[in-house]
Amino acid sequence: MMDILSSFSFQIVAIGTMILAFACGVIGTINVLRQNSLIGDAIGHAQFPGVVLAFMIVGTLDALSLLIGALIFGAFAFFVIQMINQYSKISLDASLALVLSSFFGFGMTLKSYVQGSSAYGHTGGIDDYIFGQAAYMLRADVNIILIVSAISLLIFIFNYQRIKIFIFDPVYSHMIGNKPTVMNALILVMTIGLIAAGLKAVGVILIVNLLIAPGVIGLMWSKRYLYVTLIAGFSGLVSAFVGTYISTAYVGFATGPTIILCLSAIVLFSILFGTHGAVRNGLMRRRHAA
Protein backbone atom coordinates (compact mmCIF):
# COMPACT_ATOMS: atom_id res chain seq x y z
CA MET A 1 0.00 0.00 0.00
CA MET A 2 2.76 2.43 0.94
CA ASP A 3 4.49 1.80 -2.38
CA ILE A 4 1.40 3.02 -4.21
CA LEU A 5 0.87 6.05 -1.97
CA SER A 6 4.49 7.11 -2.38
CA SER A 7 4.38 6.73 -6.17
CA PHE A 8 4.72 10.09 -7.93
CA SER A 9 2.35 9.09 -10.77
CA PHE A 10 -0.30 8.03 -8.23
CA GLN A 11 0.08 11.30 -6.33
CA ILE A 12 -0.32 13.38 -9.51
CA VAL A 13 -3.46 11.53 -10.60
CA ALA A 14 -4.92 11.42 -7.07
CA ILE A 15 -4.41 15.15 -6.47
CA GLY A 16 -5.95 16.06 -9.82
CA THR A 17 -9.00 13.81 -9.49
CA MET A 18 -9.61 14.67 -5.83
CA ILE A 19 -9.55 18.42 -6.45
CA LEU A 20 -11.81 18.02 -9.48
CA ALA A 21 -14.28 15.74 -7.69
CA PHE A 22 -14.50 18.03 -4.65
CA ALA A 23 -15.17 21.12 -6.77
CA CYS A 24 -17.67 19.29 -9.01
CA GLY A 25 -19.46 17.98 -5.91
CA VAL A 26 -19.87 21.45 -4.43
CA ILE A 27 -20.84 23.24 -7.63
CA GLY A 28 -22.98 20.34 -8.85
CA THR A 29 -25.39 20.82 -5.96
CA ILE A 30 -26.61 24.00 -7.63
CA ASN A 31 -27.76 22.22 -10.77
CA VAL A 32 -29.19 19.28 -8.81
CA LEU A 33 -31.33 21.56 -6.64
CA ARG A 34 -32.38 23.65 -9.65
CA GLN A 35 -33.31 20.42 -11.49
CA ASN A 36 -30.93 21.30 -14.33
CA SER A 37 -28.68 18.26 -13.96
CA LEU A 38 -28.83 17.21 -17.62
CA ILE A 39 -27.49 20.57 -18.78
CA GLY A 40 -24.09 19.40 -17.55
CA ASP A 41 -24.43 16.24 -19.63
CA ALA A 42 -25.32 18.21 -22.76
CA ILE A 43 -22.50 20.71 -22.25
CA GLY A 44 -19.99 17.94 -21.60
CA HIS A 45 -20.82 16.21 -24.89
CA ALA A 46 -20.95 19.54 -26.73
CA GLN A 47 -17.42 20.44 -25.63
CA PHE A 48 -15.89 17.47 -27.45
CA PRO A 49 -15.87 19.11 -30.93
CA GLY A 50 -14.19 22.12 -29.33
CA VAL A 51 -11.40 19.83 -28.14
CA VAL A 52 -10.94 18.32 -31.61
CA LEU A 53 -11.04 21.70 -33.38
CA ALA A 54 -8.49 23.11 -30.93
CA PHE A 55 -6.20 20.19 -31.75
CA MET A 56 -6.68 20.78 -35.47
CA ILE A 57 -5.73 24.45 -35.09
CA VAL A 58 -2.80 24.04 -32.70
CA GLY A 59 -1.55 20.69 -34.00
CA THR A 60 -0.71 19.28 -30.56
CA LEU A 61 -2.62 18.02 -27.53
CA ASP A 62 -1.75 21.11 -25.53
CA ALA A 63 -3.85 21.10 -22.36
CA LEU A 64 -4.53 24.86 -22.29
CA SER A 65 -5.50 25.04 -25.97
CA LEU A 66 -7.89 22.11 -25.61
CA LEU A 67 -9.40 23.71 -22.50
CA ILE A 68 -10.06 26.95 -24.40
CA GLY A 69 -11.69 25.04 -27.26
CA ALA A 70 -13.88 23.14 -24.82
CA LEU A 71 -14.92 26.33 -23.01
CA ILE A 72 -15.89 28.08 -26.24
CA PHE A 73 -18.04 25.21 -27.46
CA GLY A 74 -19.55 24.68 -24.01
CA ALA A 75 -20.68 28.31 -23.87
CA PHE A 76 -21.95 28.14 -27.45
CA ALA A 77 -23.93 24.95 -26.69
CA PHE A 78 -25.54 26.60 -23.67
CA PHE A 79 -26.48 29.61 -25.82
CA VAL A 80 -28.05 27.31 -28.44
CA ILE A 81 -30.02 25.45 -25.73
CA GLN A 82 -31.35 28.73 -24.35
CA MET A 83 -32.34 30.00 -27.81
CA ILE A 84 -34.16 26.78 -28.69
CA ASN A 85 -35.94 26.71 -25.36
CA GLN A 86 -36.92 30.40 -25.47
CA TYR A 87 -37.90 30.91 -29.09
CA SER A 88 -39.46 27.59 -30.01
CA LYS A 89 -42.07 25.21 -28.68
CA ILE A 90 -39.45 22.53 -28.06
CA SER A 91 -39.20 21.55 -24.39
CA LEU A 92 -35.97 21.85 -22.40
CA ASP A 93 -35.29 18.11 -22.28
CA ALA A 94 -35.80 17.83 -26.04
CA SER A 95 -33.48 20.77 -26.73
CA LEU A 96 -30.86 19.21 -24.44
CA ALA A 97 -31.09 15.95 -26.36
CA LEU A 98 -30.82 17.74 -29.71
CA VAL A 99 -27.76 19.75 -28.71
CA LEU A 100 -26.08 16.79 -27.01
CA SER A 101 -26.44 14.44 -29.98
CA SER A 102 -25.73 17.07 -32.66
CA PHE A 103 -22.59 18.50 -31.09
CA PHE A 104 -21.22 15.12 -30.06
CA GLY A 105 -21.91 13.75 -33.53
CA PHE A 106 -20.04 16.72 -34.98
CA GLY A 107 -17.14 15.99 -32.66
CA MET A 108 -17.02 12.31 -33.62
CA THR A 109 -17.06 13.27 -37.30
CA LEU A 110 -14.13 15.63 -36.78
CA LYS A 111 -12.29 12.97 -34.80
CA SER A 112 -12.74 10.41 -37.59
CA TYR A 113 -11.48 12.93 -40.14
CA VAL A 114 -8.43 13.84 -38.06
CA GLN A 115 -7.51 10.24 -37.30
CA GLY A 116 -7.92 9.30 -40.95
CA SER A 117 -5.71 12.14 -42.16
CA SER A 118 -1.92 11.91 -42.25
CA ALA A 119 -1.61 15.67 -41.83
CA TYR A 120 -2.20 15.61 -38.07
CA GLY A 121 0.26 12.91 -37.02
CA HIS A 122 -0.40 11.10 -33.73
CA THR A 123 -3.98 11.68 -32.58
CA GLY A 124 -4.59 8.79 -30.18
CA GLY A 125 -4.89 11.15 -27.22
CA ILE A 126 -8.15 12.60 -28.54
CA ASP A 127 -9.99 9.40 -27.55
CA ASP A 128 -9.05 10.12 -23.92
CA TYR A 129 -11.55 12.97 -23.93
CA ILE A 130 -14.45 10.61 -24.69
CA PHE A 131 -14.03 8.03 -21.92
CA GLY A 132 -11.35 9.74 -19.86
CA GLN A 133 -7.79 8.64 -19.15
CA ALA A 134 -6.87 9.97 -15.72
CA ALA A 135 -3.95 7.55 -15.43
CA TYR A 136 -2.12 9.56 -18.10
CA MET A 137 -2.70 12.98 -16.59
CA LEU A 138 0.34 15.24 -16.60
CA ARG A 139 1.31 17.98 -14.18
CA ALA A 140 0.00 20.53 -16.70
CA ASP A 141 -3.42 18.84 -16.59
CA VAL A 142 -3.41 18.92 -12.78
CA ASN A 143 -2.41 22.59 -12.78
CA ILE A 144 -5.36 23.43 -15.04
CA ILE A 145 -7.73 21.45 -12.79
CA LEU A 146 -6.34 23.26 -9.74
CA ILE A 147 -6.71 26.73 -11.29
CA VAL A 148 -10.21 26.14 -12.69
CA SER A 149 -11.43 24.47 -9.48
CA ALA A 150 -10.01 27.29 -7.35
CA ILE A 151 -11.71 29.93 -9.51
CA SER A 152 -15.03 28.07 -9.42
CA LEU A 153 -14.91 27.56 -5.66
CA LEU A 154 -13.94 31.19 -5.02
CA ILE A 155 -16.86 32.38 -7.15
CA PHE A 156 -19.12 30.06 -5.17
CA ILE A 157 -17.79 31.15 -1.76
CA PHE A 158 -17.97 34.90 -2.46
CA ASN A 159 -21.50 34.56 -3.87
CA TYR A 160 -22.72 31.86 -1.49
CA GLN A 161 -25.66 33.79 -0.01
CA ARG A 162 -26.77 35.12 -3.39
CA ILE A 163 -26.62 31.66 -4.94
CA LYS A 164 -28.46 30.11 -2.00
CA ILE A 165 -31.31 32.61 -2.26
CA PHE A 166 -31.41 32.24 -6.05
CA ILE A 167 -31.75 28.46 -5.76
CA PHE A 168 -34.51 28.34 -3.15
CA ASP A 169 -36.44 31.55 -3.88
CA PRO A 170 -35.65 33.04 -7.32
CA VAL A 171 -38.51 35.54 -7.07
CA TYR A 172 -37.22 37.01 -3.82
CA SER A 173 -33.69 36.89 -5.23
CA HIS A 174 -34.78 39.08 -8.14
CA MET A 175 -36.61 41.47 -5.79
CA ILE A 176 -33.46 42.16 -3.74
CA GLY A 177 -31.45 42.98 -6.85
CA ASN A 178 -29.92 39.67 -7.96
CA LYS A 179 -30.45 39.70 -11.70
CA PRO A 180 -31.27 36.21 -13.05
CA THR A 181 -28.98 36.73 -16.05
CA VAL A 182 -26.03 37.48 -13.78
CA MET A 183 -26.74 34.54 -11.50
CA ASN A 184 -27.17 32.17 -14.43
CA ALA A 185 -23.90 33.46 -15.89
CA LEU A 186 -22.06 32.76 -12.63
CA ILE A 187 -23.43 29.23 -12.47
CA LEU A 188 -22.64 28.71 -16.15
CA VAL A 189 -19.02 29.84 -15.75
CA MET A 190 -18.44 27.48 -12.82
CA THR A 191 -20.13 24.51 -14.47
CA ILE A 192 -18.58 24.85 -17.94
CA GLY A 193 -15.13 25.46 -16.49
CA LEU A 194 -15.20 22.33 -14.34
CA ILE A 195 -16.57 20.18 -17.15
CA ALA A 196 -13.86 21.38 -19.53
CA ALA A 197 -11.11 20.85 -16.94
CA GLY A 198 -12.33 17.34 -16.14
CA LEU A 199 -12.73 15.98 -19.66
CA LYS A 200 -9.35 14.25 -19.74
CA ALA A 201 -9.86 12.75 -16.28
CA VAL A 202 -13.28 11.12 -16.77
CA GLY A 203 -14.35 12.00 -20.33
CA VAL A 204 -17.50 13.54 -21.78
CA ILE A 205 -19.51 10.38 -21.08
CA LEU A 206 -18.93 10.27 -17.32
CA ILE A 207 -18.22 13.89 -16.31
CA VAL A 208 -21.88 14.56 -15.57
CA ASN A 209 -21.79 11.91 -12.82
CA LEU A 210 -19.24 13.97 -10.91
CA LEU A 211 -21.66 16.90 -11.01
CA ILE A 212 -24.84 15.01 -10.10
CA ALA A 213 -23.98 12.08 -7.83
CA PRO A 214 -22.31 14.03 -4.97
CA GLY A 215 -25.28 16.40 -4.80
CA VAL A 216 -27.66 13.45 -4.53
CA ILE A 217 -25.52 12.02 -1.73
CA GLY A 218 -25.60 15.32 0.13
CA LEU A 219 -29.39 15.57 -0.11
CA MET A 220 -29.78 12.05 1.29
CA TRP A 221 -27.97 13.05 4.48
CA SER A 222 -29.02 16.67 5.10
CA LYS A 223 -31.50 19.37 4.11
CA ARG A 224 -29.28 22.28 5.15
CA TYR A 225 -27.60 23.63 2.04
CA LEU A 226 -24.20 24.24 3.66
CA TYR A 227 -24.05 20.65 4.90
CA VAL A 228 -25.27 19.36 1.53
CA THR A 229 -22.42 21.10 -0.27
CA LEU A 230 -19.80 19.88 2.22
CA ILE A 231 -21.05 16.28 2.11
CA ALA A 232 -21.18 16.43 -1.68
CA GLY A 233 -17.65 17.79 -1.95
CA PHE A 234 -16.10 15.29 0.45
CA SER A 235 -17.99 12.31 -1.01
CA GLY A 236 -16.53 13.22 -4.40
CA LEU A 237 -13.07 13.65 -2.88
CA VAL A 238 -13.18 10.26 -1.10
CA SER A 239 -14.47 8.51 -4.23
CA ALA A 240 -11.66 10.02 -6.29
CA PHE A 241 -9.00 8.85 -3.85
CA VAL A 242 -10.40 5.31 -3.49
CA GLY A 243 -11.04 4.98 -7.23
CA THR A 244 -7.54 6.17 -8.09
CA TYR A 245 -6.01 3.79 -5.56
CA ILE A 246 -7.98 0.78 -6.84
CA SER A 247 -7.13 1.53 -10.47
CA THR A 248 -3.45 1.85 -9.53
CA ALA A 249 -3.35 -1.31 -7.41
CA TYR A 250 -5.20 -3.52 -9.90
CA VAL A 251 -4.07 -3.54 -13.52
CA GLY A 252 -6.90 -3.21 -16.03
CA PHE A 253 -9.10 -0.87 -13.98
CA ALA A 254 -9.53 2.49 -15.71
CA THR A 255 -9.27 5.36 -13.25
CA GLY A 256 -12.23 7.49 -14.37
CA PRO A 257 -14.83 4.69 -14.49
CA THR A 258 -13.52 3.28 -11.19
CA ILE A 259 -14.03 6.66 -9.52
CA ILE A 260 -17.57 6.79 -10.90
CA LEU A 261 -18.28 3.25 -9.62
CA CYS A 262 -17.07 4.22 -6.13
CA LEU A 263 -19.24 7.33 -6.24
CA SER A 264 -22.23 5.28 -7.45
CA ALA A 265 -21.75 2.85 -4.55
CA ILE A 266 -21.94 5.76 -2.09
CA VAL A 267 -25.05 7.04 -3.89
CA LEU A 268 -26.74 3.65 -3.54
CA PHE A 269 -25.80 3.38 0.14
CA SER A 270 -27.04 6.93 0.80
CA ILE A 271 -30.35 6.37 -1.01
CA LEU A 272 -30.95 3.28 1.13
CA PHE A 273 -29.50 4.22 4.52
CA GLY A 274 -29.11 8.00 4.51
CA THR A 275 -30.86 10.28 7.00
CA HIS A 276 -33.44 10.95 4.29
CA GLY A 277 -33.02 7.59 2.57
CA ALA A 278 -35.52 4.87 1.69
CA VAL A 279 -35.05 2.71 4.79
CA ARG A 280 -35.50 5.56 7.28
CA ASN A 281 -38.45 7.01 5.35
CA GLY A 282 -40.07 3.58 5.22
CA LEU A 283 -39.69 3.15 8.98
CA MET A 284 -41.13 6.62 9.59
CA ARG A 285 -44.16 5.86 7.41
CA ARG A 286 -44.76 2.65 9.31
CA ARG A 287 -44.61 4.46 12.65
CA HIS A 288 -47.09 7.09 11.45
CA ALA A 289 -49.37 4.39 10.09
CA ALA A 290 -49.26 2.55 13.42
From TrEMBL:
Recorded topology in the membrane: Multi-pass membrane protein
Protein name: Manganese/zinc/iron transport system permease protein
GO cellular component, one term: ATP-binding cassette (ABC) transporter complex
Organism: Aliicoccus persicus
Similarity comment: Belongs to the ABC-3 integral membrane protein family.
Coiled coil (UniProt feature): none
Localization: Cell membrane
Pfam family, one: ABC-3
Keywords: Cell membrane, Membrane, Transmembrane, Transmembrane helix, Transport
